[in-house]
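Case study 2.
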Amino acid sequence: MKKQKVLLLGVYGMEVVECGGALAKNAQNGGESFASIMLSKENSKPQIRKAADVLGVTVNFTDFEMGNVDVSSEAKEKIIKVVREVRPDIIITQDPEHSFHDLDPDRRQAMITILEGIALAGRPYALDKLPGLDPHPIPTIYYMTPHQPNTVVDVSDVWNLKNEAMSVLESQMEFSGQHFEEALSDSNLENLVPGFSKLPNNYEKGRAVHKALDHAVHVYHGLATHGHYAFAEAFRREGNFHLDELIK
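Prediction:
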């Protein structure tokens, strides 16, 4: 198997874990896995770094401003710099369709900025502003957690690593615990996580719901849809697969 460089261009940080199975497997197979995160609060960065360490991923932060992501030259140059420095074979990023339906702030502008950055990274653009970084041709792109996947990756062997990495995202779990408690009825929460009301804090509540969600989603893509794996991550490859011959 060819040793590959895989780069995740993420927005908030939890993406490191959401596609962490593919990143971890690449690292375990002798490849290099990287993640670059656009928006992350200072108190979340150590948690994201710790999750990345669990998965064997090298992570950095481009420090965009929350609520002010735009498609300026400066914004695109941040993405270009990362792509040209890493020179990946594969880029993973958010699904364009999903990003426009998701009402997390900055997702839509981030998507345009990421794709423009990837496109310009392969052209002789901003060479004077990024000396020593030659253009890097557009790599293969996979969109993570898409509405309409065309690819699934077996993550059964690294399932425990994904769970461990998710557990260290304490700020996200606390936010999720509060969100789920406000969004769902008591009976729904008890059906989803028996004993939910007895969990002691928002972290435990968020972690419990994420475990239930992650288990359901990964089993669905891995086994439930006539699949071959216990747990799988879903992706949508940009463009056609180009094969020398058909593969099973």
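The chain has ten helices and seven strands.
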